[in-house]
Amino acid sequence: MRLLKISALVIPMMISASCSKDFIERPSLSGTTTGNYYNNASEVRAATSTLYSGLPWRNYESRAQDAIGDVMSGNMFTYTDVEYLNFSLSSASERVGAAWGAFYKIIGYANVMIKTFEEKKAAGGGADYLDPAIAECHFIRGTLYFYIARTWGDAPIITDPGATALSGNFNIPRYYQKDVLRFALEELQMAEANLPESDEPGRLTKYSAKGMMAKLYLYNKDYANAKTKAQEVINSGKYSLVSDYNGMFTKASMNNNVESLFSIQHQFAVDPWGTGNIKNPDRGASNLRTAEADAWEMYMPSLDLLNEYEFGDLRRKWSVMEHGWTNPNWKPQRANQPKYNEFMANGYKYDTIQPVDDGGAKNAVRANIAKYFAGPGKTYGSESVLGQNSGNNVVLLRYADILLIYAEATLAGAASTTDASALQALNAVRARAGLPARTSVTADNIFHERRVEFAFEGDFWYDIQRQGYAKAKAIIEKQNRGSIEGGANYITTFTEDRMYLPIPAGEIIQDPELAKPAVPYYK
């Protein structure tokens, strides 16, 4: 959806499909008004559940998140989004437009809900259920502007699309990145003030806002506030690291676990299109394609990332399929392929020696991504999969991030630290991965830890970016972005204008102001 078209959004148009699981369930919004609806918590929460649903997030989390966060950062190899691999992308790139459209569409939903709920409250609606709902909208709006500021730098801020439409002035400028980040922070502060201490699994809480604020403060190098907010989450005692790292991403039964602070909520149903998680086929090894599950391995681990893992790091086998990787519960079978069926009869094996037609795996990097690959289908011993869809949530903020934010904020730009609390936070993440504890920590230690901990989660590009241009250039130019067949590939032409994505060409055509220099948002 184009930015300018958001101004036409009204509540009845927001989502036409009805969802039907847990707190996502909600009635149709058609025909609703502030007079005859939003009269109780159930009706209001049903509306805000739309903001968590996979439907509006779809165009971001399906491929744009991978291309921007992991291909561009050097964590993924691909033959499809080569312009992100080589930093040759333009304003016409499909992923650029998809991410922009998804972010501003969801912001449009949040804008309309905030205005609607505030009008309802002014007309006598209950603040006890309207204020937390408004806070949910502020969290979503703040988080998305945080993403927008990191992805595009200078960008538009829209809070009242209706007023924009009535004014007739659609020449919306870009605002300075620092102002977009300030706006995002203010939104998260409002969310923190009015979200509850706890809620049903999957719903936002005060600590979701504190955690996202900690991440934003760290991005701004405001180490004191980043440490404070991360510590508040840690001290709450509400979150912990789960033992089943791979299960966080591949088992629907682990959705909204104690490590998750904020996740996009997915469902698996008879017709899950738009509500299911569709990362499965883009990551799955092609020898796991069955009558139930698609798998075409669009994105693969980069050779550079594979070289990043320390010896003995359990996250490698939890995140990556390589020669010798097995899952005895998965027993994929195919019609009229007896050699394949025999090879897989006693459980799935990732084998780069076996002929491909007989069950072997032999792609450009000799590895595939295990995160968010739910399996070959229920008939074949895995989680339920229907074509491209699985029922796994996409996690956007988890407790491991809070721990590493705390460690980095305690370091606060120093060469190293032996601070006991920083080491405790860092080493908790390392202990789960089966790695020895560090006795001191440097910025490079944390940067490494973040890369392997959050690999394939769409976050590492922002970690590179926040190092600043000079260091980002050095990091990128050291990465091998090639393949086994094609040989090593090193970037030698990374320039400062590649630190942020270009605004989609179609948006500039509709709003020429976006091509002009940014202006202040705060007067």
TrEMBL record:
Transmembrane segments: none annotated. Residues 306-516 form the RagB/SusD domain. SUPFAM superfamilies: TPR-like. Its main location: membrane. Pfam families: SusD-like_3, SusD_RagB. It is found in: Cell outer membrane. Residues 87-218 form the SusD-like N-terminal domain. Keywords: Cell outer membrane, Membrane, Signal. It comes from the Bacteria. Belongs to the SusD family. This is RagB/SusD family nutrient uptake outer membrane protein.
